[in-house]
Amino acid sequence: MHDSHPDGESPADGDFGIRRLDGRHVALWGWGREGRAAYRAIRARLPALPLTLFCGGDEAADAHALGDAALSVETEASAGRLGAFDVVIKSPGISPYRPEALAAAHEGTRFVGGTALWFAERPDANTVCVTGTKGKSTTTALLAHLLRAGGHRTALCGNIGLPLLELLDAEAEFWAVELSSYQTRDVAASGVRPKVAVVTNIFPEHLDWHGSEARYVEDKLALVSEARPHVAVLNAADRRLAGLGARLPGDSQVRWFGREDGWHLRGDLLYRGDARVLDTASIPLPGRHNRGNLCAVLTAVEALGLDAAALAPHAASFAPLPHRLQTLGVREGIVYVNDSISTTPHASLAALEVFRGRRVALLVGGHDRGLDWTDFAEALSNRPREAGQPPGPACATPVAIVTMGHGVPHQNGGRIHALLEAPAREAGFALHAARDLEEALALARGALAGEGVVLMSPGAPSYGVYRDFTERGRHFAQLAGFSPEAITAIPGLGIAP
Question: Residues 34, 86: one domain?
Answer without folding.
Answer: yes
